[in-house]
Amino acid sequence: MKRNLIHSLTLALAATPLVIAGCGGSSEAAGGGGGGGGGGTTTPIVFQSDRGGNTDVWISTVTRGGPLQLTTDTGFDGQPSLSQDGTKVAFTSDRGGSLDIYVMDADGRNQRRLTFFAGDAKDPSFHPNGQEIAFVGQDRDGVFQVYVVLISDGSLTQLTSGTADHAEPAFSPGGNRIAYASAEDGDLELFIMNSDGTNKRQLTNNDVADTMPAWHPNGTRLAYVSKDGLNNDIWVILATGSGRQRLTTEPSEELAPCYSPDGQVIAFQSNRTGRDQIFLMSSVNGENVQNITNSTSNDGAPCF
Questions:
Q1: What is the Rg, in whole angstroms, of the alpha carbon atoms belonging to the chain?
Q2: What is the pLDDT of residue 128?
Q3: pLDDT score, position 253
Q4: I need a surface site. Which of 15, 108, 138, 292 has the fewest CB within 10 A?
């Protein structure tokens, strides 16, 4: 299954842009097993790319050919997040003058703005119910806080406060927890809180930045980025805060990890070829690494 998924996505993302992808999902099982979904030829992936001459959001699967460009605005459109049912894509755009959160159908239609911050809003992450999006936005003091926006009416709930910046919130597969990065102790570390903002606890405690948390589909561990060395690499850690494991060791920048819906592989962004590309690797040991974009453009921020 693991090799089939990697081979299939390599063909899909390297192909000429033609048509749109299908749907995918994940599930959280208490105490163990892999998440549901994620078959080799039905797994969609959204990502950002400048292959069209500007940074835009793209989507692809194997079943319907190569990647399709979803946004065409002249500004920045990136940081895509795919809803669990595969029907919506949230993304960050500066088309309104500053960075804000937008949502659209998975075929690129019905694009609309959800946030209207005086400063910036970024880092969207769908709730499994597909109706809420966690993100960070600048409060009146310019500090990035974690918020949740309701897609139906744009109503906001602020979950964090204080003077430290927060970044990259990610709903757990069950929707009851949010992992995020915070500079509360001086540098960015990983934290987990309940989805209502209660019961905050620190997950990592290093002298370097730990960022970009991504949940395994069964909710028991997370992949993340750490500069515990000369450059950023992909690590995994149990949701209890134990069992840290380094998966990448290349002398390059590895960023934006994302588990496949079946939990067998991790997609990530790396500049090991000289430009940003999307790679897949085993989620168990970091082996069987393959470049699945192989393009002359910069591709990154993958999300299943």
A1: 18
A2: 98
A3: 97
A4: 15
Cβ 76 vs Cβ 100: under 8 Å: no
- Looking at residue 61, its pLDDT comes to 66
- Cα–Cα distance measured from residue 67 to residue 87, given in angstroms and rounded to the nearest whole number: 16
Task: Give the span between the Cα atoms of 28 and 171, in whole angstroms.
Answer: 11
pLDDT in tens, 165-181: 999 999 999 999 999 99
Q: For the chain, how long is the longest CA-to-CA vector?
A: 49
Q: What is the pTM of this model?
A: 0.88
